[in-house]
Amino acid sequence: MHSSDGGSGGGNGSPQEASVLDAVLENARNRRYLGQRLSTAGERVETDDLVDIVRHGPLLEALLDEPLDRRGIEERLDVSKATSHRFTRWLDERGLGERIDHRFRLTGLGEVVAEEVLRFEANVRTARRLTPLLDAICDDHDEFVVEPFADATVTVAAPEDPYRPVERFVELVRGSETFRGFNTTHMAPLVLGEFHRHIFDETETEIIYRPEIVARLFETYPERAQNAVERGHLRLRTRGDFPYGLAIYDDRVGIGGYDGTTGLMEVFVDTDAPIARQWAERVYASVRADSESLDAES
Asked: Could you tell me which residue ranges the Methanogenesis regulatory protein FilR1 middle domain spans (predicted)?
């Protein structure tokens, strides 16, 4: 998956956070071509070697934290003396570790490999947790990156509680003084009065909808919607299509995936991670720049 770079959003993250995000996005853009680049270079790592490295992930992680002697390796990993000897021999043979003053430490190569194994595990874990969202936006994976959502809250609809994602979404709106977002359909069902009370009267709101969705909003709440727009409390913009639903609150960002048939929110994923906010701000700025303002007169 890779992300649209989205231009310069109104993000409030630090320069360091922005640079980290830039690196994540650049890596995401390039990763689909890595196989081709590696094949061209003619230096592919054997599959068995890759599997061996992942299998030794706990050892690499332990030594990434601190140098350890053999006794420390045995205690940290709960392995036998024979296994610790095999581990340290493996490190030495592959140039990933070295022994200094009776303790084993990672080489520069070993540190990089250890970090990449942890990154791989983190991304696989995140992708598994985000499976309901990835399935819901499967046609638009190219517009989404996984890394910023490693610690996200994932709320999934269930047969006995189909509105759980919507309830989580509205709960966050209720606790936020501002709200911006775009969506493939209504942010919440039109019959959900509490959400629309917030966007009409309480929360400073900017929403980007498809034109027909805006029309239905005004059909359902003609006076309240018009008054909110006239006061400048609710700013509406329109655009042809969206990859998914995006929500930006005071201190969290969220992504919604919808059932293509019913239009109901199937999953909502939200996080307060600064890098996720940086990503969301960029995506929102990109979508907003390609939208049209709906003023009070129109």
From this structure: 162-290
